[in-house]
Write the structure tokens for this entry.
Amino acid sequence: MVTKDEQNELPIPVEWRQTLYKVVECLVKNDYQSISKIPLVSKLPKTTSIQINSYIEDYCEELISLPEDAWGSSVYVWQRGYWDVLVDLWTRNEGHSDLVLSVRVYEEQESYRFEVQMVCVF
């Protein structure tokens, strides 16, 4: 069971990490259409993929796959109906960057549904 704590940011649950890793892999490959093919991930609206692409391009750094260290700084918090998840993104030159992937996670019966919200500088 994932904790529903509205007061504290907590480390990303282990059971969500593989899905979030796969989402980031799609961003690294600039393959936004494949995000919707990941099990439990909602279809990515065109406007969201345009926003994500724009932020990543404007940042002017090459994204890389998430290293294990990414989970040490990425967090989630309960928002009365969903969890707000912030995954720190990494780049080739900087390592841990200022870019963050925002995802909402909803409970769905005995599983979860991931909805990519945006990428922004945090």
Observations:
- Strands lie at 10-11, 63-64, 75-78, 83-91, 95-108, 111-121.
- The chain has a mean pLDDT of 96.
- The two ends are 28 Å apart (CA to CA).
